[in-house]
Amino acid sequence: MERIVCKHAHPPIVKEEIWDEVNKNREVRAEASAFFREKPALKTGVTMLKDLIYCNECGKKMTIRKDNKLKLFTIKKCEYVNDRGEKCSNAGVKLEHVERNVMLHLKKYRVKLKQTLESLNTQEDLITEEGHKDRLKRIEEEIKKVEEKKCHLIDLALTGIFTHAELKEKRQELMDNLAYLKEQHENLLTEVNNRKSEDMHEQLEGTLSKIKTIEESKNHPEELNQALKLIIKKVYYSRVLPKNIAVKSTRSEIRKNYPYELKIEFY
Ligand SMILES: [Zn+2]
Fold first, then answer.
1. Distance 236 CA to ligand 1 centre (A)
2. What pTM value is reported for the model?
3. Is 84 inside any structural domain?
4. What count of other Cβ atoms lies within 10 Å of the Cβ of residue 82?
5. Which of 1, 116, 137, 162, CA to CA, is 20 to 30 A from 153?
């Protein structure tokens, strides 16, 4: 015989703290990381990308060096040697190219963030979050009532007033109702969680204002470096010359102009 299990399942509660926590952590992480990766740059002075460039081939941090003869900065060829004695093949490049490129990436990133912000604004005419929460609460109360009714079915069955068929029908009715309510609850919950737009709004605005600071401190490498570290986690740099080009003289134009690739990891 089928048993009616009497359990008051508590519907999940909306955890807005989680969202706040995650975003707070992001900021803290960026700041902590900026603090820990600081290394004195006595020889080179602070450049815009100090401590930010990583080798895309082996993952090691790349060295920025001042070339006194040429009076310019370069990203040094990666010097990592793995356990099998193989040298990393990532070649160096003049730093200024990479700096310009990072700024370009940043510009694109800013445009993307602005678009996201605008699309958020168009969603704002939806019902307020408060309204959502009230509805959630009402549905939760209804679910509780239906669950209780389900439990009382056992008492009803014991009284012997209703036939088995009638009880079965009542039970089905309650089950359908419950399924409907739970679906409603689920949908609403998804909506509420998607509607964290206000927090996202704030976060996007924050990043955008940081990018603005970066663009304004163009001529102050040290400030620029600090500001960049708040939004960029790592810049992955890759410039692996094919063998036929690597054997050419360092003065070869083809070798000198061989392109590099950047991938930027933002916070
Ligand atoms: Zn490497």
1. 10
2. 0.58
3. yes
4. 9
5. 137
Instruction: Kindly give the distance from the C-alpha atom of residue 85 to the centroid of ligand 1, in angstroms, as a whole number.
Output: 13
Span from the CA of 53 to the centroid of ligand 1 (angstroms): 11
As given in the structure block, the two tokens for residue 27 are 């900021």
Last residue of a domain, one of 194, 211, 241: 194
Residue 46 lies in a domain: yes
46 and 175 in a common domain: no
- For residue 4, the one-letter residue type is I
- 236 and 256 share one domain: yes
Residues 61 and 113 in one domain: yes
d(Cα 129, Cα 148) in Å, to the nearest integer? Answer: 29
Cα 185 to Cα 62: distance, rounded to the nearest angstrom: 51
For 63-83, what is each residue's pLDDT tens digit? Answer: 999 887 777 899 999 999 888
Q: Are residues 2 and 118 in the same domain?
A: no
Q: How far is the CA of 78 from the centre of ligand 1 (A)?
A: 5
DSSP H/E element including 73:
strand 72-75
Between the CA of 253 and the centroid of ligand 1 the distance, in Å, is 24
Digit-coded pLDDT (tens) for 107-155: 999 998 998 888 777 665 555 666 778 888 999 999 999 999 888 888 8
- Ligand 1 center–CA 241 separation, angstroms: 13
Would you state the pLDDT for residue 194? 67
Domain that holds residue 114: 37-124+222-266
The CA 57 to ligand 1 mean position distance, Å, reads 5
**How many angstroms separate the alpha carbon of residue 215 from the centre of ligand 1?**
30
> What's the total number of domains in the chain?
2
